[in-house]
Amino acid sequence: MHGPASLGWLLVALCAATGAYCLLRMRSGVEEQRRAAGGEALMGFGMAAMAVPAAVFTPPAWAWPAYAVVFGAAGLRSLWALWAARSGRHHLHHLVGAAAMVYMAVVMAGSPAHAHGHGHGHGTSGTPVLTGALLLYFTGYVLLTGVRLIPVAAVTGAGAGPVPSPALPAGGGPAAGWGDRPELARVCRLSMAIGMLAMLLPL
Prior knowledge:
- It is built from 6 helices and no strands.
- By secondary structure, it is mostly helical.
- It has one domain.
- The two termini are 18 Å apart.
């Protein structure tokens, strides 16, 4: 149990740190960025709470329905934003993430003997097809987001001349706030997608 518990605490730390960073991103001067960061902060803290090892804290029976309600509402909000914007892949990603949280909460609520069993060696009774679809989605998302982040690091370390800062908007205007930088938002979403994979694997 020591190994799985250690992994559980690492997952808690990753998700909590990501949630805290997303709270800081809510200081952005762009309303859309603030909304996205708020949803990601909720996701990060929710995942952190769900990943706390069972040996430390076993949630009450009402906790899992509460998770389902909260993230169901977050999913409806993302669905509305997706419909209103008619575009925006991050809205779709938020919707899938909220749906995954609702799914895990429902599975845990239906398996009281395995409550709080993410990453701790307990088997749960998720639907294999749905679990597999979510694993496929988040695996693809992690790989795609990682590939998109590689050129930024590669160009920065190349030393082949001046590189335009991603914080500078086109036209040479004033630098955007650090909370508006797209690569930071991608790192947050990448971290949570990795955490989601770790939580879905035991289902």
